[in-house]
Amino acid sequence: MDDYKQLIFACLAAGIATYAVRWYTDPLRAIPTVGGSSLPGLSWLAALRMLRNCRAVLEEGYGKYPEQTFKLPALDRWMVVVSGRELVEELRKRGDDELSQPEGAQETLQFKYLFEPSVFRDEYHVDVVKGRFTRRLPAMLPDVVDEVKAAVKDHIVTRLGDDEWTSVEVMPVMQNIIARVSSRVFVGLPLCRNEEYLRVAVDFTVDVMKTCVGGIHRRAYRIVARFYNMVKRDTERAVAFLRPIIEERQRGGVELDEDGKPHRQNDLLQFILDKATPKHEPVFTIVQRLMTVNFAAIHTSSNTITHALTRLAEQPELLTPLRDEIEGSIAADGWTPAALANMQKLDSLLRETLRFHGIGLLSMVRKAMKDLTLRDGTRIPRGTLVEVAAYPMHHDSALLERADAFDAFRYARKHMPAGEGARLLFTATSPEYVPFGHGRHACPGRYFASSQLKAILAHVILSYDIKLGGDGVRATDVFVAMGVLPAPQSRVLFRARKRGGDPGQ
Length: 505
Ligand code: HEM
What we know:
Keywords: Heme, Iron, Membrane, Metal-binding, Monooxygenase, Oxidoreductase, Transmembrane, Transmembrane helix. By secondary structure, the chain is an alpha+beta fold. The protein folds into two domains: 1-28; 76-496, CATH 1.10.630.10. It has 21 helices and twelve strands. A five-stranded mixed sheet has the order 1-2-8-5-3. Strands 4-12-9 form a three-stranded antiparallel sheet.
């Protein structure tokens, strides 16, 4: 019996000693910890504190270690955070064999437990968004504008002629409008107007978000996802709508639009099918690829437009200069890419919205694929997640004048040397402006996001007066883990404009 006890104690002691040596020699130990202690066991407490107050902990780290590296605790790992031009540039320049973007994103969002492995073994749907889809954006704009007008009319219902204001809960309405307008160019008519399909597209997005901010330990996902996988369930729901269309297209059949006319398939689904069909990919995998892009598009764009609309409702004095600009651009060029490009104040409002609010506290997540040393001498062991402190950098007045204030037209006012104006566009990334990431992995959907968001905002601004109810003060944002969200149930008051309105209506 004594021998047995001694054996247990010996194993325990050996286990503790191995753990202590590994902890002591771990290169991550040399990186300063923010948010609590890095001692074994105590880092758990720090991780729990982080879950409740990520923003304060991140800002504390950035304040103490600007343009340097520090680490934050999560329940199952350390997250290494960098900031400053040089280190952001280093993340941009390192290849995926050293600091991998796909591996970083998949690990953060727990994709490997939720999705078909083949979707991420070959992410050709990302290349499709970056290439063929983006090249066709100018040709797609008439469809986008057509869908914007129909969707806004269906979702923001006000009475014309009287002086009444209608209160609208902005986030769900914007999710529906974004899902519908995106679906117009993702899957085309008539599916983009099928409310049940749009429900699935939005549910998929919300369920991926719920899963990845759930704070579950990485290893627990493996087990939980086997029995309860909301993403798989949502994909199956989407397959019911998409299978007949996919099979018809693969047979070479012609789809009919709402008026029964044959319709040319020039949408994202077709571009994905053109790659998937020769590979004999199953319908389920094709649908997951489409849903992945839906996820990337809907959550980000609906958050951004909700922030922008609540800002406009809080500062209705911004509406008149925006209307003048939008009306002038449309009068000159119609609803064309040239007109959208001329809407510089609108562009500035969107850029300022992403700078000030953004969609997350961190950006550019990368996974170290091997042991490496950053330019500031920080040693990063293989498997570590490295991210950029986006939120504190975007709010740093050393990098941008009065960065703590929301100033909608700040970028439109800036006079840049000839030919350099494009550097301040909504879609132009830089080491100091990273809401879309930066470098070759920067969001490939940002040009579509820009067209879509501008078309919706321009149409809303021309068609409605808007303001906030109550005390007229916008509710503060909500920070959930590393995500930034507009306050839930935020409402904006809309009133149809008696004079003016959208000239293209
Ligand atoms: C305001 C709207 C949007 C924001 C703020 C946003 C932001 C981002 C960010 C931060 C990344 C990761 C970049 C990195 O790790 O370096 C990303 C990736 C991505 N986004 Fe967006 N996005 C938006 C809209 C869209 C739209 C509309 C689409 C689709 C049409 C889209 C498709 C994608 C895809 C496919 C990726 C993965 C890129 C890759 O793996 O290389 N996004 N986005």
